[in-house]
Specification:
By secondary structure, the chain is of the alpha+beta class. Helices cover about 25% and strands about 35% of the residues. It has 2 domains: about 100 residues, Tumour Suppressor Smad4, CATH 2.60.200; about 40 residues.
């Protein structure tokens, strides 16, 4: 699993063995019907039961006012109130059922920003950078991406201008 990903594994119930791995860009809908990214076909699961989303470097689950509720480590989730998920948590989707889902969160290489010796640092599995160094690196990366994008746009404009010129000349009978 890549850093920041979450794995949901059904360990009991009618969907036992079902697994899904999702990255931080995905909003994971959980429910009984096919449109959900993590579909649990069980009578105790609502059609749109819950949503799992990534925010501020953490994963959260929110119950969508489901009929039978959701619990995290045996504690009921209040509908509409996000609850943070941790690696190793146990979810019950449809409280009172045997739909038990284990959570695995990959955090290796995750970024942690904190204060150390009066300077803020970005800490990863590979290095520690000051905020200034990190900003400089990000600006270099963004500058290179912007430059490449600008070059592509200019090439496209030049090609379009050349095509317009050719079209105008051929319509006027000039070669």
């Amino acid at each position: 699993m890549a850093p920041g990903t979450i794995r949901l594994s059904v360990v009991s119930g009618v969907m036992s063995g079902l697994e899904g791995v999702y990255d931080t860009k995905k909003r994971i809908t959980v429910g009984r019907v096919r449109v959900n990214k993590f579909q649990l076909k069980a009578d105790t699961v609502s059609s749109k039961h819950a949503v799992i989303a990534h925010a501020d470097g953490r994963w959260f689950i929110t119950d969508c006012d489901s009929s039978n509720g959701t619990s995290v480590n045996g504690i009921s989730v209040i509908p509409g109130t996000p609850v943070e998920l941790k690696d190793g948590d146990t979810l019950i989707v449809g409280v009172g059922s045997d739909n038990i889902v284990k959570v695995k969160i990959e955090t290796q290489g995750a970024v942690d920003v904190h204060v150390q010796n009066d300077s803020i640092v970005k800490k990863s599995a590979l290095s520690t950078l000051t905020v200034k160094q990190w900003i400089e690196e990000e600006m270099e990366r963004l500058s290179a991406e912007t430059e490449a994008l600008a070059e592509a746009v200019l090439r496209g404009l030049a090609e379009s201008a050349e095509q317009v010129k050719k079209d105008a000349c051929s319509n006027a009978g000039v070669d």
